[in-house]
Write a structure and sequence with these properties.
single chain; 228 residues; seven-stranded mixed sheet; 6 helices
């Protein structure tokens, strides 16, 4: 069952910024149908690593078709308005993310449902322009992994220290940020072109942080993602 109250839809960037999280709402979406050929940009930017940050000066200099130029204009505008808002957006080409080296029973990489945490008030913004897009999940449809008895017991076996330090151990290694979807959970895909604002776990937050995960990439497909 999808919890409709989790998502608030807006129609422009100004409202995306101004609309607060409240109640069960911890994800705000500016739904967009973007024009332009983003695949042309993906093909013309050199991918040196599994994740390559796109240099904006380099992006401006690439020779593109009319449709590619339209896509580039959107990318540059999104980056500019977010910077004007005080954010630090990054445009990435992603072949795949690194898998973690934690025990097999507990993944702490971005393919696992997780929340973002910050010591200061902030939000997560993201938009996928090409490739597979992320999923979010209602908080009521997941369980924090460290609260699942069998997982918690295995973590205690892994922990080498006194009982008083166990909770700090869970935080230090980010185990407390990850969640397991319930059997009947229905993830919500964020879609292409939509600009999202997701709630972060920070000291002044009035809502639960938004659970999200990176998509499993298709072979040979590169993802173009803006995130901050």
């Amino acid at each position: 069952m999808i919890i409709e109250n989790q998502i608030k839809n807006v129609s422009n960037f100004k409202d995306l910024i101004a609309t607060p999280f409240q109640g069960e709402t911890n994800a705000i979406c500016w739904s967009r149908k973007l024009v332009g050929d983003f695949s042309e940009i993906v093909e013309k930017v050199t991918l040196n690593e599994n994740i390559t940050e796109v240099n904006l000066e380099e992006l401006r200099e690439i020779q593109l078709s009319e449709q590619g130029a339209l896509a580039r204009k959107i990318l540059l505008n999104d980056m500019e308005v977010l910077k004007d808002h005080g954010a630090s957006p990054v445009l990435n080409l992603i072949k795949c993310y690194e898998r973690d080296d934690t025990p097999s029973f507990f993944s702490t990489d971005v393919y696992s449902f997780h929340v973002d945490r910050s010591p200061i008030p902030t939000d997560t913004f993201l938009c996928t322009y090409h490739g597979e897009s992320s999923d979010i999940l209602s908080n009521s449809q997941a369980t924090q992994k460290i609260l699942i008895p069998e997982i918690r017991n295995k973590l205690k076996e892994l922990y080498d220290g006194n009982e008083d330090g166990f909770e700090s151990f869970l935080t230090e290694y980010f185990f407390d940020l990850h969640y397991q979807a319930k059997p009947d959970a229905v993830p919500i895909n964020l879609g292409l072109g939509n600009l999202w604002k997701l709630a972060v776990d920070h000291p002044e937050s009035k809502v639960l942080p938004c659970l999200h995960r990176a998509p499993k990439e298709k072979n040979g497909q590169t993802r173009l993602l803006m995130i901050c």
